[in-house]
Amino acid sequence: MAMTVGLLVPSWALLRSSSPSSFRHGGHSNNRQQQLLLQRKETVCGNAGARCRKYKGQQFCGIVGSHNASVQARPRTVEKAAGEHKAERPDQKKKGVVITGGSKGLGYALAHQFLSYGHKVIICNRNEDQLATALQTLQAEHEGSIVYGMCCDVSNAADVCAFASFAVEKLGIVDIWINNAGEVTSKKILADVEASEIVRVCGTNVIGSLLCCREAINVMRLQPSSELPIFHIFNMGFSQWGANFTKSSCTHKTTKVALTQLTSSLSSEIQAAGLSSIGVHNLSPGMVLTDLLLKDSTVVARRFFNTLAEEPETVAASLAPRILAVQGTRKSISYLSPASAFLKVALGFPQIIQGGRFFDKNGNRVEVSGNRYQENGVRIR
Ligand SMILES: *[C@@H]1O[C@H](CO)[C@@H](O)[C@H](O)[C@H]1NC(C)=O
Ligand SMILES: *[C@@H]1O[C@H](CO)[C@@H](O)[C@H](O)[C@H]1NC(C)=O
């Protein structure tokens, strides 16, 4: 595929604390193609402190967008009181979808799927290069569609705030917010895992989802109200069954079960608070052939993945229509149920013994010609 160069232009978050005008800008761009002819991207985030700006003592990192993106810090107290700043109801057919960590794996596949249906998508990532690559590919594959990204560490409150403002500016209305960003720790016993790794993984998985839910609700509560949920937030938690079944570390499982509780408690809380337009749900993608699953996986586990796991796009193609169709609150959308997992293992037994679908019996990735693979077996786009 022809790579488009110079699609990305960074611009600094414009931190103005006065007007709540980000709600009036729908952020819909028309002559995108002209606007894409801009300079080479620069490094705007990561730990390059000099590239970040300080606002109220916290750092905001830069923005990567397909054109001159600018963000205003939302003056929350003003906006919450100001009913006249409610955004207008958009074209029902085009939904605004936010996916955290959408630059690889399942998040990327979901972004691709929503764009292919004609919806508008915002992604984020901590790593600017990964984000830039993902945006370039998504833009090239979905010409004329609305897709933007921003560097954001979901465990950082200021980043998440800036990201939510960016999403509102670009989408107008945020219909769906998917807390997809997640990490695993190395598969060691808790006592042997680096303390900093535990803090980082809990930060991304738990604090990240909490902060993102908080921002998403603050965005959605200002959108047109409704008696039934029309705006939806998704967390990727584990059921008790999922936690028992998964072979990930104790830290990872702990965070994932916490997210299930978050969905349940938050759903009740916002209904009780009268925010009836917002639904909160759980999304269980099952086993997806990504870094998260394949990191440190054993040969036996890999042989099981032949029957239980799927490539991200297969899972995304199944989940995206169900995400779009969700109604009510506290629903659970799963790719793999206990019954279907049991059936897959039973029917796929020869694959577990002999290998062949994704991994051979020694746990090596079965390579399909034309595809490239990472050392851990993850297919490279
Ligand atoms: C980018 O945005 C800034 C701030 O709104 C503006 O001053 C500048 O002229 C814009 N640049 C382009 C190329 O549109
Ligand atoms: C999960 O594992 C625990 C401990 O082994 C067990 O008590 C519990 O019933 C299991 N739950 C499910 C849903 O499998």
From TrEMBL:
Protein name: Uncharacterized protein
Keywords: Signal
Signal peptide (from-to): 1-17
Region span, Disordered: 74-93
Taxonomic source organism: Sphagnum troendelagicum
Membrane-traversing stretches: none
Domain of life of the native organism: Eukaryota
Residue spans of biased composition, Basic and acidic residues class: 76-93
KW Glycoprotein (keyword) present: no
Keyword Signal: yes
InterPro entries listed in its UniProt record: Chl_b_Red, NAD(P)-bd_dom_sf, SDR_fam
